[in-house]
Amino acid sequence: MTDDFTEEEKLGFYKAIYSRRDVRSHFTSKPIEDEILSKILHAAHHAPSVGFSQPWNFILIKNDQTKKKIKESFQEEKKRSSQLIEEPKRSKYLSFKLEGISESPVNVCVTYDPTKFGPFVIGRSSIPEAGLYSVCCAIQNLWLSARTEGVGLGWVSILSNEALKEVLELPEHVIPVAYLCLGYVDEFAEKPDLETAGWLPRLELKDVVYFEKWEDKENKDWLSIQKMINENLDYA
Q1: Where does the Nitroreductase domain start and stop, copy by copy (predicted)?
Q2: d(CA 226, CA 231)
Q3: Which member of 20, 42, 72, 119 has the greatest number of CB atoms within 10 A?
Q4: Rounded to two decimals, what is the model's pTM?
């Protein structure tokens, strides 16, 4: 496990990153094999965590009635959030397919438990949110592992956390962080759906990188990488 990655392994790693998609449709009826699902969950569980606290839990869901209740929350929240934008964007937003709760064979709710291993966690005293960040690392591991196994994943964020806590009977102190839809798909889109739909553009790397200080894009100590970034090298 300590050996360097081969060139082929590196290419596989970057392929998983650049071809990962937030999947909302194209789910097939093919079930996810238990061995594959187990591998994906193991990858998630090996994410880094603040103070080695491993503050995540994974609730696996396939019951249709549970999915129905969660989808009802999605529909309510989508309607509510549509009131925050004006036409014609509102109609466009409402037309988007933004979840695959019923269509995907497995749903997973990833939660954050701040009480795991007690009140003191190394590294969390100054930045309490580091526990939540750790759970997000686990979700990213899960997402990339799923893509590597040919399994589509969609993160449904248009949900009420209170509804999730009630339907899934979560303890008061446990926070739902992500509700994920997993399943095999007919295809992985070439580009993210919202980019294809023209909702928002993909920013270039040069638009989001500063050097030494906020908004410093031309620091002379970083000329070489500035040139590479401006060329916008991209595997995607």
Answers
A1: 17-184
A2: 9
A3: 20
A4: 0.94
Q: Is residue 221 part of a domain?
A: yes
- Both 33 and 106 in a single domain? yes
- Residue type, position 170, single letter: L
Q: Average the pLDDT over each of 43-47, 59-63, 201-205 and give the range with the smallest value.
A: 201-205
pLDDT for residue 5: 94
**Is 80 exceeded by the pLDDT of residue 232?**
no
Region of 169 on the Ramachandran plot (φ > 0 left; ψ -120 to 50 alpha; else beta): left
Q: Is 154 in the same domain as 236?
A: no
Q: Name the burial class of residue 27, with classes exposed (0-12), middle (13-18) and buried (19+) by CB atoms within 10 angstroms of its CB.
A: buried
How many folded domains does the chain comprise?
2
Residues 185 and 213 in one domain: no
Mean pLDDT (the chain, rounded): 95
Per the listing, tokens 């959030």 go with: 81
1 lies in some domain: no
End-to-end CA distance of the chain: 28
Q: Is residue 2 part of a domain?
A: no
pLDDT tier at 231, thresholds 50, 70, 90: confident
- Which residue range forms the structural domain that includes residue 229? 203-236
Amino acid code (one letter) for 91: S
In-domain check, residue 4? no
Alpha carbon distance 151, 32 (integer Å): 8
Structure tokens at 132: 């939540």
Q: Measured between alpha carbons, how far is 186 from 126 in angstroms, rounded to an integer?
A: 45
Q: Is the pLDDT of residue 199 over 70?
A: yes
